[in-house]
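It is worth pausing here to work through a concrete case rather than discussing structure prediction in the abstract. The textbook approach is simple: state the sequence, then state the predicted structure, then interpret. We follow exactly that order.
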Amino acid sequence: MSQEDRKPVSRRRFLALVGTSSFAGVLAACGAPPTATQPTAEGNAGPTSAPAPTAAPTTAPSASGEVVNLRYVFAGSPQPDQALVQEALSALVQQKGLNATITLEPVDYGAFNERVMLMNTGGEPFDLVFTAPWINNYYQNVNNGTLLPLDDLLPQYAPGLWASMPPSTWEAARVGGKIYAVINQQIFPKLFGPLFRKDLVEKYQIDLEAITSYEQLTPILQQIKDGEPELRYVFLGDNGSHKEIWGYDPIDQALGFPAVKFDDPSARVVNFFETPEAVAYATLVRTWREAGFTALDELAQEEREGLIKAGQVAVLMAEVIKPGAEQEAKARYGYEWVGRAIAPNYLTTGGVVATLTGIPSSSAHPEAAMQFLELVNTDPEVYNLLAKGIEGRHWRFVDAESRVIELIPDSGYAPNSDWQFGNQFNAYYTDPAAVGNWERTREINDSARPSPILGFTFDRTPVETELAQTSEVFTRAFKPIYAGDGEVAANLAAANAELKAAGADRVLAEIQKQIDAWLATRGG
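Step two, the predicted structure:
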């Protein structure tokens, strides 16, 4: 296994591996998620320390005490040492008091959706499955009845997991008032911001702490351009897709234009591209283009990453600036980076439910499956065996007290997708510089303010025709504007007129109707 293969597979890289055509198919298959109903969230104050290892399960998975087998299906490549790891994992969970063996069933990225769909439609029994709004669609699974509601199972069989996140965070996983999958805890808020090459920050004495808006980057970019005219930049993204930067909950990224402002308790739905923030956003990108800040946005992912690794890029404009982002960028691109978060710290439904683990309706052992999730999410020994393999064969401690390890090259087990397996705050560090990042990330999560529509999901069924029409306009008409091409006011007016003609007002009215009904059920 090469060092390139051992790089962490982020959700962004996962989508690149799957391919844009496959992702478009995922979005097209999303169907109509039902509207969630739940009690009012009371803020997001919660624990700030990592969970302690859980006690052994106190309830046997079967009345007879027999050892049951749990099939765990997730996205990834089969590993040469997979059999060894699952044997060790089975022994460990039994040592912890769970009468179960674990069968790991990774499915290659491109085949994951189809494989899980066939298992569901065929009634094939399995016990744990990775799901999300963007892959093996969570809401479609709920609609189809292929996931069990977990409201009773969670507090009874996974009390540590249940207590590890504030009630307001769990609200995001509810559909129709019920929780159908366990949240895999990692960074939740989308704290977008620029990530600069560290050598350029030092050379040009850039004060990152003083940056509070993207507009403040213009003179900094000009300074770098004057001194390094050959360098290029990754801009803010096609179609104005980073609405969180400008203070808006995108409701559903696949819809494109609807949004709700974070600080609007009435949750009024608007066309983002008619807001002053959207105009300012487009104007800013246009200013950068006119100033000659050459971007990489038009390039394919592989070509773009090649230029970044070659040192030809000064700044990545819209990265999630989380604890450890700099170390991840260095591992990926080979340079040292420093970032500054600009987007406000808010929880959105999409940010929280981006990675989930569900228990299929076909599971014969839901109680044992939930007990396994308790162990994975609260016991670092279990989590790291699943995520990183066997100590001494696949990794070794460098500093056990600080939980720092090094991975053994070509060891035979490197799934590199910790974010799929549960609470990532249990993960051992692979870089001494990252020590403490999990605690800092938990503090960010638990201090984030809930969006006024946290937990709401939109039922697309009443406006499927209009959504198809507006999606085409959104994809085609707004991309040039947010790439800085052409006069902003005229182009935005023309694009918004196209949206309106395609049925945008009908879509906005339907979303508002559903949000109002949802708010009414929670006393909002």
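Step three, interpretation. The chain has 20 helices and 18 strands. Residues 199 and 205 are 10 Å apart (CA to CA).
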